[in-house]
Amino acid sequence: MPAGELRRALRGHGHPLSPLVQIGKLGLTDAVIKQVNQALDDHELIKVKVGGECPVDRHEVADRLDREAGVDLVQMVGRVILLYKRHPRTPRYEGKRAQAVKTPEKPAATKKIKARRAGGAAAKRSRRR
């Protein structure tokens, strides 16, 4: 399972996603596992929906998918499972690429408020405006 901070970020990224793989009345077959692995190679983060007619319990499905090489179970809410598999060359949610997305600039309003609190020349200029 990924570290706490990464799991939190992955849950946030996974929230708006729709399930890419659905497990139906045949259960978790080799073809479904192959489809899950292909989807993870393409997207890194996917949702899997376990249908109500699935003969296997949703916890067993999650455990089986989690045992695949490199696949991490991020979250399970109801019958929806969120899975993550780090891309070997260009990871989208880890490393430098993710760090660049995480650090947004502070808005100008926050800078003005801090200047006013400091009581410096910048505060006097902002009061004149």
Write the layout of secondary structure elements.
Elements (H helix, E strand, L loop, with lengths): L3 H11 L4 E5 L6 H14 L1 E6 L7 H9 L5 E6 L2 E5 L11 H7 L5 H11 L2 H8 L1
Parallel strand pairs: 1-2
Antiparallel strand pairs: 2-4, 3-4
Largest sheet: number of strands, sense, barrel closure: 4 strands, mixed
Uncertain runs: none
- Overall radius of gyration: 22 Å
What is the assembly state of the chains in this entry? single chain
| CATH superfamily caption | YhbY-like
Task: Give the averaged pLDDT, no decimals.
Answer: 82
Domain tally = 1
Tally of individual helices: 6
SSE arrangement, N to C = HEHEHEEHHH
Strand tally: 4
Structural class category: alpha+beta
Q: What's the level 1 CATH class?
A: Alpha Beta
Shape: elongated
CATH-defined architecture: 2-Layer Sandwich
How helix-rich are the residues, as a percent range? 40-55%
Separation of the first and last Cα atoms:
53 Å
The percent range for strand residues is 15-25%
Which fold name fills CATH's third level, the topology? Translation Initiation Factor IF3
Q: Describe the strand arrangement of the main beta sheet, using strand numbers.
A: 1-2-4-3
Provide structural commentary.
By secondary structure, this protein is an alpha+beta fold. The protein is built from six helices and four strands; from the N terminus they run αβαβαββααα. The chain is elongated and about 70 Å long. The model has no long low-confidence stretch (mean pLDDT 82). The protein has a four-stranded mixed β-sheet, with helices on both faces. The longest helix is centred in the first third of the chain and has 14 residues, at 30-43. It has a single domain (4-94), classed as YhbY-like (Translation Initiation Factor IF3), CATH 3.30.110.
